[in-house]
Amino acid sequence: KFAMVAPDVQIDDGKGTILISSEEGETEANNHRKLSDFGIRNGTRLQADDFLQDYTLLINVLHSEDLGKDVEFEVVGDTPEKIGPKPSEPTSKNITNGSDDGAQPSTSTGNSI
Predict the structure, then answer these.
(1) Is 36 buried (19+), middle (13-18) or exposed (0-12) by CB count in 10 A?
(2) For the chain, what is the largest distance between any 2 Cα atoms, rounded to a whole number of angstroms?
(3) 11, 88 in Cβ contact below 8 A?
(4) What are phi and psi of 54, to 5 degrees?
(5) N or C: lower Cβ tally within 10 Å for the chain?
(6) What gap in Å lies between CA 61 and CA 75, rounded to an integer?
(7) CA distance 21 to 13
(8) 39: left (phi over 0), alpha (psi -120 to 50) or beta
């Protein structure tokens, strides 16, 4: 739903509690735990980062009693379309005379005035 490739999710409380890691196996023990086990309640904010896409998402957790039957959660707000990987930076520039500062070679003839 959020089009993330390798997300890292943490509680946005300044402590850095990591819930989901893009590193395989790092947070596997969290898979069967409830959000309340981490102190996540109504009003908690989560931060999801996907460094492969240079993409950060803030998630506000809000409790609701008004969800339909068999609906466990609902995403409200603007969700992005699929985001591709960020364009790669050019690895080299065409540099002449060993400098990229725009300076031009000297055209003096060596004659003094």
Answers:
(1) exposed
(2) 93
(3) no
(4) 50, 55
(5) C
(6) 10
(7) 17
(8) left
**Residue whose entry in the numeric block shows the structure tokens 């969290």:** 30
CA gap 38, 29 in Å, rounded = 12
Q: What is the pLDDT, as a whole number, of residue 89?
A: 58
pLDDT < 70 stretches in the chain = 1, 79-113
In the block, which residue shows the tokens 């993409």? Answer: 55
Say which amino acid occupies 30.
Answer: N
Identify the H or E element spanning 9: strand 8-11
Collapsing DSSP to helix, strand or coil, 37 comes out as: helix
What domains can be seen in the chain, in order of their start residue? 8-60 (3.10.290.20)
